[in-house]
């Protein structure tokens, strides 16, 4: 009831991969498209993979609004704060 998307799970790869496309979340008065507005590239086994930035992950998880998503957002926030403390 909260999410709708196109979803596929690949199990034949070296590790299972789940891919979601056209993700929408029911928020407020209706369905809202989930868009990644800020991303970064990381290297994964020699491949460049685009992922949401930490701040973007927090925004998306907060939009989802479920307890487990909010807990993940809080963990990410704590991680960011710990990194700031180590640098400063």
Characterization of this structure:
The chain is α+β, with helices and mostly antiparallel strands. It is 36% helix and 40% strand. Helix 1 (54-64) runs antiparallel to helix 2 (67-87). It starts with a strand and ends with a helix. The model has no long low-confidence stretch (mean pLDDT 92).
Distinctive features:
88 residues, alpha+beta, 3-stranded antiparallel beta sheet, two-stranded antiparallel sheet, 36% helix, globular
Shape: globular
Largest beta-sheet characterization: 3 strands, antiparallel
Helix fraction bin: 25-40%
**Beta fraction:** 35-45%
Output the number of helix runs. Answer: 2
The rounded distance between the terminal residues' Cα atoms is 44 Å
**CA-atom Rg in angstroms:** 15 Å
Unreliable stretches covering 5 or more consecutive residues: none
Mean pLDDT over the full residue set: 92
* Secondary-structure element series: EEEEEHH
What class, by secondary structure content? alpha+beta
* Strands in their spatial order, largest beta sheet: 1-2-3
- Count of beta strands: 5
In short:
With 88 residues, the chain is α+β, with helices and mostly antiparallel strands.
Topology:
Blueprint: E1 3-10, E2 17-27, E3 30-33, E4 39-44, E5 47-52, H1 54-64, H2 67-87
Antiparallel strand pairs: 1-2, 2-3, 4-5
